[in-house]
Amino acid sequence: MNNDPIVFQLNAAKDKPQSYRKTKKKNKNVCPFCDVETLTDIYKRQGDMIWLHNKYPTLRDTIQTVLIESHDHNGDISTYTREHNRKLMKFALSCFETMNDSNDYRSVLWYKNFGPHSGGSLSHPHMQIVGFKHENGYKYIQPDNFEGESLFKSKNVEVNIAKHPVQGYTELNINLLNKNDLNLWADWIQSGSKYMLNIMYDGRCDSYNLFFYPRKDGGICAKFITRFEAPPYFVGYKLSQVNDGIALDKEARRFRKFFDNGSKLE
């Protein structure tokens, strides 16, 4: 398998607003997503959720889009009302499917950055949906990346702690097996964000990535990955690491109990 890296266009990123980096340039830290009246190239909107073209195309041979989740600059999946989060997941899925079903791209990637260590540039809650014209963005992803220590399963949704993580060590997989219960899927995703930021690692995690992968059976896997410093085995060799079975089982039981208790923080 050839390693064909996607090309980052540094010149396109030089004027990009930043939330996590101090700058002396005037107005550089002003949040563009809060200034809704000046937004352009909007594809679709529903309430305060807005899907639009990304005006800073930093990746070559792609169409980059942004999905603004809420008008709340400090919001997150973990803090939204249950109703808003359910609407968000349905809206985001419909936007992803619009691009993915267009046949204009070799692959379409959908993901979210949260927190200062997530690799994102803006703190205002948003997702990204990116169409790659030539690149298969899923070439390193395998079906077993979505499998693991199962803690919940219904006809429509299955949740597990990954036994074959993409990076490691503890990844939460929330699998939508079919689209008959998007609300339950959204509820598990919201619980996962709360659990990852507040319970897992005793609240030491302040950043995560949430990736959405189309499954070969027609479903979608929503995968939470904690963001700390990347392990050297992954950085240097693309070797992921996973916790032992005892730790995975403990995490699965804790996450299931957290969800059953209404995802309430004590």
Automatic annotation (TrEMBL):
InterPro entries: DUF4931, DUF4931_C, GalT_short, HIT-like_sf. It comes from the Bacteria. Pfam families: DUF4931_C (PF20956), DUF4931_N (PF16285). Residues 9-133, 141-244 form the DUF4931 domain. This is DUF4931 domain-containing protein. It comes from Lactobacillus acetotolerans.
